[in-house]
Amino acid sequence: MQTLIWDFDGTLGYREGGTFSAALAEIARRESPDSGVTADQLRPHLQSGFPWHTPSRPHLDITSAAQWWDVLGPVLERAFREVGFDETQACSLARQVRGVYSDPACWRLFDDVIPTLVRLSSQGWTHVLLSNHVPELSEIVHHLKLEPHLTGIFNSAETGYEKPHPQAFLNVLEAIGSPTAVWMIGDSYAADVSGAEAVGIPAILIRGTHVEARYTCNQLAQVPMIVDGKEGD
What we know:
Strand order of the largest sheet: 5-4-1-6-7-8
CATH class of the largest domain: Alpha Beta
Helix content: 40-55%
Largest sheet: 6 strands, parallel
CATH superfamily of the largest domain: HAD superfamily/HAD-like
Structural class: alpha/beta
CATH architecture of the largest domain: 3-Layer(aba) Sandwich
Low-confidence stretches: none
């Protein structure tokens, strides 16, 4: 069996309108249209406190989606306070983030995703997802009709391990057994490429460049050429 391990956000899909800072800005403007709060104003206050900001620290104690969001609550409240909302408002706004950010209707696949996955599947590759994401990732994947192309989804919000923690990748290897070839594909050098290579998985950096990345490509359509010519090399 040949297996490709895919990152999701920024690699296969994206949230239309932007990431967490954009979602918070949307909520802030809806609550207070005259506030003029922007994603750029919120972004500096969202650079710590998320599980993936401390990937060396597993969070096995978080065992439900509700608990995951409860842990994140103070981070979101702080961000709203920093842009001018009082404590009561910030608490109310923070409770809205889950529904806004994880709404499947806000998520899209890049145009090259399905054609590339279909092509690779026809060449004997199976696909699994390995992502640092919110607990609702499976619902998003289902909405995007990506599910039929995957044999498994490994979400940090459920496993307790954030990439590039070695166990995030080892969990996948344990689940898929002993593939004849395996690659990691993602848009983050630190989380996807460096993390995978640390446990012996060759990796491709997609939609970006890095001086230390051995394999890079701007479009997913280039992936088959890399993995077919250098399986596991």
